[in-house]
Amino acid sequence: MNILQAPRAVVMIRPHHFCSNPETRDDNAFQTLSNRSATATSQAALAEFDTAVGTLRDAGVTVHAFDDTGTQTPDSVFPNNWFSTHAGGHVAVYPMFAPNRRLERRMDVIELLKRDYRVQDVIDYSGLEQDGLALEGTGAMVLDHIGRIAYTVQSNRADPILLERFCTHFNFEPMAFQARDAQGRDVYHTNVLMGIGTDYALICLDMITDPNRRRQIAGRLEESGRAVIDLTHDQIANFAGNAIELTGHHRLLALSARALDALHPEQIAIIERSAQPLPLHVPTIETAGGSVRCMLAGVHLSPRERISQ
């Protein structure tokens, strides 16, 4: 089974003080305010997280779960924005747009990766925050690990200079584009409007504002041999694009229960040709403006062989 696009392991951060981040509310149109108390919201998010971890592990996915007990990092449940991993032993650490999101970076995650996987180098771009630059990992970029293309919505979360630098270091071709939602608002992260599996791609082509660029992107996805599942604006609003392909007992597509409910039967049938949808119930966590893809930082590294004592 080709697992280049579908990692066998993920990193997740358990949120003990979850809430919707006030520092990202201005440009994240997917955020909503909970009508419950802060304590009830936090407890609900923690329960959703733990159930999701159990579901993933039962499906054969390795989950490295870390606890975040601090109160200054409301988006810590979305670790895919501050680091990514790549075949060949490469790790990237990213600069974040919102000041309180910069506090999410933690060395114990990187140390676990070095201990359990073959890590050749860690390229840290985070110092570029001092220059006002951000590139928020696999939220800002949706990576085709097979075709080596970094699909990237232009936003304050994805600086073009940093994108070029990342693509040079990690051997990706940048494909940047503008995207807006049905209300004409700029899309803040690429991974809310598209997700790439091994044999299919989920994408709302209508959100790409330039018709020529829209045709180019659809063409590149089709050239890669993938079936293009064209999502509607309503499906995107229900996080149907915020999904990640994983490898467990077999190939899986992890997405939220809400996202799966939004897909049409013919779209699900295309996915099921090569992957089993794995719905996770995370409605409280989704109020922060991200869903299952944002919660899972894929580990695209080779595990170290354990030396028996």
TrEMBL record:
InterPro entries: Amdntrnsf_FN0238
Signal sequence coordinates: none
Pfam families: DDAH_eukar (PF19420)
Protein name: Arginine deiminase-related protein
